[in-house]
Design goal:
290 residues, Chemotaxis protein chec, 2 domains, four-stranded antiparallel sheet, 7 helices, 29% strand, elongated
Length: 290
């Protein structure tokens, strides 16, 4: 009987912890590929580290972002969903300065909005980031991320209902002495839909297996070695009595010879059977599966 669990009707789109772990694996791959791409694009050594993957409401996510900031609203084609990508200005402006020929990058504190020229330069960086993001998601589903609009004030972004559950993926990007956070927010409903689509594709691949594929798979495993043992239930003895056992001593089992014994495959119960004698040798006749 299943145990009762707490359910929050205000966050009906919450996803299970195992799917959060799967998202961490996807974005670990994204962090590694993005570090390589940014290092080549910026011509400097860049490290990208995944900091957290958590689920919260859209209002909570927007409340955690700095103001002003570099916020992009994303489309997730072919799905009818909206995501957001936020890059801290303390990270975005040093990257732009580096692309414009700046020297050694030092931490900057910038409290202003971007100019149109700076935004165009940042768009090139965003295209590279979204390309790596799409490649990392290919193992789950084919998704095309495209920039829909740019914003600077998180409090003025109302692309999702305040209480809608979103998955927040926070990464830290470091170049030289400068480091900053980049946050990606996706609706939990879209993440769950992507997982369902992935599961359906996997089920379809399994159901469409041909006879040749089945035969080839069996050919790979038919020579595998397995441990098969018949287990007879014994009696309980004290450890010091066990140490005093010697040749010729007799151990009495609690199981009768007429009772069925367990047949174990790699320590796991598989069948039940009865002890018999076959051609003068002791054997077990399988009676039923466990």
């Amino acid at each position: 009987m299943a145990l009762a669990q707490r359910y929050d009707f205000r966050r009906s789109d919450r996803i299970p912890k195992e799917q959060i772990r799967a998202l961490r694996a996807v974005h670990d791959t994204f962090a590694r590929s993005l570090a390589s791409s940014l290092s080549a694009y910026l011509r400097t050594y860049v490290t990208v580290n995944l900091i957290s993957v958590e689920q919260l409401s859209f209002r909570e996510l927007m409340g955690c972002l700095p103001s002003p900031t570099c916020l992009s609203v994303l489309r997730m084609k072919p799905f009818d969903g909206i995501a957001i990508l936020e890059m801290n200005p303390g990270l975005a402006f040093p990257m732009i300065e580096l692309l414009l020929g700046g020297g050694k990058i030092k931490p900057l504190v910038v409290q202003r909005e971007m100019t149109l020229i700076e935004q165009q330069i940042l768009n090139g960086l965003l295209a590279l980031i979204l390309q790596n993001l799409a490649l990392s998601w290919q193992g789950v589903a084919t998704v095309e991320f495209a920039v829909d609009s740019h914003e600077t004030e998180p409090g003025l972004v109302h692309v999702l209902p305040p209480n809608e559950a979103v998955v927040s993926i926070a990464t830290e990007i470091q170049l030289g002495e400068t480091s900053g956070m980049m946050t990606i927010g996706m609706p939990s409903s879209i993440v769950k839909l992507l997982r369902q689509k992935s599961d359906q594709q996997w089920t379809a691949r399994r159901s469409n297996a041909t006879d040749d594929e089945i035969e080839r798979t069996l050919g790979h495993v038919e020579m595998s070695m397995l441990d098969l043992e018949a287990r007879i239930e014994g009696s309980v003895v004290r450890f010091d009595d066990l140490l005093e056992l010697s040749e010729g001593d007799i151990l009495q089992f609690e199981q009768r010879t007429t009772e069925m014994v367990s047949l174990m495959v790699n320590k796991l119960p598989k069948w039940r059977g009865r002890v018999q004698v076959n051609a003068g040798r002791k054997a077990v006749a399988i009676q039923k599966a466990c």
